[in-house]
Amino acid sequence: MTAETVIIWHNPRCSKSRGALKILTERNMPHEVRLYLEDPPSVAEIKEVMAKLGITDPREMMRKKEKEYRELGLQDADSERLIQAMAEHPRLIERPILIRGQHAIIARPPELAEDFLAA
User: What is the spatial distance between Cα 112 and Cα 35, in angstroms, rounded to a whole number?
Assistant: First the structure.
């Protein structure tokens, strides 16, 4: 990977998200912060990020312990419904997600960002 801009889907209230942002800042990585709770991704964007993460099951990028997950009855939902739910309820999206070119990572723990940025 080159030193292209990293996009971080960030929640400033989350310590893991703040940790990943700190790593980006300390490494002087060009980055763009997307406050995904205020600017939710579309269904198409979520599908694009899933491809960059290399996943096919939306649950791999979901916060399954959030109350919305239970309240919306997503336990048995199909992929399309899960993706739609994330677009409508961005709190369901795991954080932080770092996107760089054609690759992405869920930086939990934030130290995972180190290897991602070094690649």
Answer: 20
Query: SS3 of 64, please?
Result: coil
Kindly provide the residue ranges of all beta strands, DSSP E only, lying in 43-110, ordered along the sequence: 97-100, 103-106
DSSP E strand stretches across 27-83: 31-34
**pLDDT tens digits, 39-78:** 999 999 999 999 999 999 999 999 999 999 999 999 999 9
User: Among 98, 93, 86, 89, which Cα is nearest to 19's?
Assistant: 98
Structural domain containing residue 75: 44-94
What confidence tens digit (pLDDT) does each residue in 10-26 have? 999 999 999 999 999 99
| Residues labelled as active-site residues | 14
In a shared domain, residues 51 and 86: yes
Domains in the chain, number: 2
Instruction: Please state whether the predicted TM-score (pTM) of the whole model is above 0.85.
Output: yes
